[in-house]
Amino acid sequence: MSDEDGYFGESVAAAYDESSADMFRPEAVDPAVDLLAELAGAGRALEFGVGTGRIALPLARRGIPVHGIDMSRAMTARLRAKPGGDAVGVTIGDFATTRVPGTFTVAYLVFNTINNLTTQDAQVACFRNAAAHLRPGGCFVIEVGVPELRRLPPGQNAVPFRTGPTHWAFDVYDVATQAMSSNYVTVVDGRAEYEYYPFRYVWPSELDLMARLAGLRLRDRWEGWTRTPFHHESRRHVSVWEKPAG
């Protein structure tokens, strides 16, 4: 890891919003906020991996009390510096295990953040942590991609997803361990710079089992935030697990 902020230190935080600009567009943000606000109702929302506030800030502007957990001080400093940043509570820590006071109506993880937990044990712990924070009837929401192993021909373990004259990006998969990494090569002033981010990919059915271990049950699964039906060709999903009311 680069520093105490893990892989999301100052160098990443400084360019994060710009590098992820497409995910900050209203058509990407508004449907997620609509659904999360609906699930939160009159209660509170807890974001695991709150980052620079892409979802937490507009959700708070809807009048939903939002608290976030994140390991990166550099990322959350950007959140606090934005208009309305003081309305979002932030706790620095590992969202798989860090507890905050009170209970919440909805807890959520967006933009593949569950994959930042690079072991199955950590992902299981995350579900248990979410369940511990939820009040009865509350929901845990995850947005994550479906592993793209169908794009791997025999003998290949890398899938490119961005190419250009000075920039290349590709994912590397280990199908034996479910370890993967996103790799970026950028040429700057004639020199190549390389960045590497490890993940653990996870299947929808595996997430459902983790939820059951945490005492949650699947309520809904869609292809995206607009509630398009999930099907065998879907490349991502938004899943909602509910904590039983009684």
**Shape assignment:** globular
Topology order in helix (H) and strand (E) letters = HHEHEHEEHEEEEEHEE
Chain-averaged pLDDT? 96
- Stretches where pLDDT is under 50 for at least 5 consecutive residues are none
State the total count of DSSP E strands: 11
Largest sheet: 7 strands, mixed
Count of alpha/pi helices:
6
Radius of gyration: 18 Å
* Structural class assignment: alpha/beta
Query: Percent of residues in helical segments?
Result: 25-40%
Strand content: 25-35%
The end-to-end distance, rounded to whole angstroms, is: 43 Å
Structural commentary:
- 35% of the residues are buried.
- The chain starts with 9 loop residues before the first helix and ends with a strand.
- The strands form two sheets. It has a seven-stranded mixed sheet. The chain has a four-stranded antiparallel sheet with strand order 6-7-8-9, with no helix packed on it.
- With 246 residues, the chain is an alpha/beta fold.
- It is built from six helices and eleven strands.
